[in-house]
Structure of EAL domain-containing protein:
Amino acid sequence: MRSDWILDVLTDLKTFARANNMPILAEQLDDSAIVAMAEIAAMKDVKNAQRHDGDTAVGTHLGGAGTS
């Protein structure tokens, strides 16, 4: 499944926010786009590793509470 569409949606939302004098929201949407790109890349890495090795890639989790 193609995941890049979410970046287009975030860009549209950011454009709307800037056009409607919502600079803080626009900045948050920039941050969200960075997170989305990182997660999309991580998913692609896992899929590529599975395709080449047949195993799940290790170390692609982006973190969260209680991770070590």
Remarks:
- Residues 5-53 form one domain.
- The two ends are 30 Å apart (CA to CA).
- The mean pLDDT is 83.
- The chain has one domain: 5-53.
